[in-house]
Every structure is written in C-alpha cells, then in structure tokens.
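Data availability excerpt. The first of two example chains:
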Amino acid sequence: MNEWTYLNKPVLSIDDMQDVEPKVWGFVYHLTLYDKKTNKVEYYYIGKKNIFSKRKRNFGKKELSLHTDKRKKKYEYIIKESDWKTYMSSNKFIKDNINKYNIKREILSFSTNDMDLSFQEAKEIMCQGALESDKYLNDGVSIRRFGNKIIN
C-alpha cells in the first residue's frame, strides 16, 4: 500500500506529523488516481481525515457504584488513534474501484481541531477548483459553523 507523504517525505507515524504540528488532530489530503495499465492520471480527490477518534464511554455498574457523589459525570471520553495509515477515502467511487488504480496519497495540511480541519478541507476544494473539474471526484463542500473565529 502507498504511504502518506507530506512535502514529498513519508509520514509513517504520528511522530512524523508532530514534527510539523505538535498538537495535530487531523489532516487534509489529496489523492491522485493513476490507471494501473497506462499509468495516466485519471482522477483526483481532496478530503480530510482525523488521526484520532473520540468517543463517549458510559461507566458500568461497578464504576458507578464507586461514585458517591451523584453530581459526577457518568461517562468518560476515550481518544484513540484512527485507521489513518490504511485509510483511502470515504468516496464511494474510490472504495468501489480501489483495485483499478494506483493511488498517490499526499497530505496537504495539518489541523489541531475539527473546526479548522473542516475549514481547511473546504478551502482546498474551492481553491483547487475541484467542484468545477471532471477530473476531481469531489461532489460537494460543506461548512457548518465556525463560531467567532475561523483560524485560531
């Protein structure tokens, strides 16, 4: 499988990312799909990927019985590394045709939070003209909210 690269250097672990951005949460990526037979560029795709997943875990009965203060929260957040090393894309076409193409995986930028990650992805999609080109498999862009600041 092709490895992720950033500025033409391989990214094999989270440590490689933290050399660039110490508090990295995710990255925006660019895929180039080459036809396996002709080695010609067929398609491109821009996306984002969290390198950590955060989920809520409710305490079990034994853990709850240890808490005497009923005002304490009854859950904890679990943060673990995602499947970013083997991740290809959420795009249905790429998933369905992954064996037809050689895929070059490039990291464009790193983000420290979900808000910035969504903004950076939308910015790349718009600036690259991905929605206007038949070569790009992107079919939309979405930004939900940014509060008071877009960039920290």
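And the second chain:
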Amino acid sequence: MPETTIRSILVRENYELAEKMMRGLHDSERELFNKTEHWDNIRESYMRHVISCQEENEGTFLAAYINDEPAGFIFGYLEEQDDSRIEVYRGPELYVSDGYIYPAYRKMGIYKKLNAALEAAYIAKGVRRIMRFTLSSNTRMQKLLETEGYCATRIVYEKWLEDDGMTQQKLDLEAPTE
C-alpha cells in the first residue's frame, strides 16, 4: 500500500487545492441530497467561511497525499461554547465540518489517518468534545464514525416548504451504492 503523507495547509495560500477538494465533497453531497446547492453558486462564500474559520477559530485543514498527489482532506475548527448551552461540557469543542477522499483513494484508510491526526492536534489543545454532522443517507460515514468511537446524540428533522408556506417539498436522500 502506498504511503500517505499528511500536510497542514493554509487555505488562503493554497486556495486552488482546497477549493478543488471542497468541490469534490460538495459534488458528492449533491448526489446524496437533492437540496444541496450547486457548488458554483456558493463557492466564494463557502471558501470565505472556511478561511475565516481557519484564521479566527484555530481551524486546521489537513490534506492527504499519495505519491505527492492530493488524495483527500479534513477540516475542523474550535467552537467556544457560551453560557446558553444545555450540556454539562464547558470549553472549546472541535467541530469537524468537512472531509472528503477522492474515489480513487477510498478504502485505503486515508480518512481514518486524517481524522486521527486532526483529533490528536485538538486533544493536545484541551478539547474533550468533538462534533460532526453527516447526512442521514451517508451510511458509510456513519459506520466509520461509529468504529472511531462517535455516537449519534441528536437527530435533526427537517421539513422544507415551498414559497407558499403550505406545500411540502420532497427531500431526496439516497444512500450511496457500494
């Protein structure tokens, strides 16, 4: 198996690479959920958000390489909790907001390596709570997270309505095919 190299990158300085990886993630999510906006419509604002989270919230963007070729990434940042939270936990928490492995590099353990490296960096900073979201149809990610010690603590239910405020929109959530 080829060796995986993981590098921390600054999104602002590696914008083209980070944007290409984010596009891959976004396109993948569009296949799983029909309400995911087209990447070209949100690219600038989302990339601005990622840069802001990296620079203002101690964000980390880890890129994985196989033979110097980008294979995937993971991105997370600190969220400081205020006194309105209902949980017992206090302090910074790691929010893992994005991650993606290009199809050609899947099932090689790369995402697990990225996740372990990201977690270790933030655990060293005192984080004791790590949060992440995934689509209900993304059963592959759910299985991976469960093997890594994560458990579902809340489930989000959504109802989308048409502009008339009365007609319910159909949400298509398709589980990925193996």
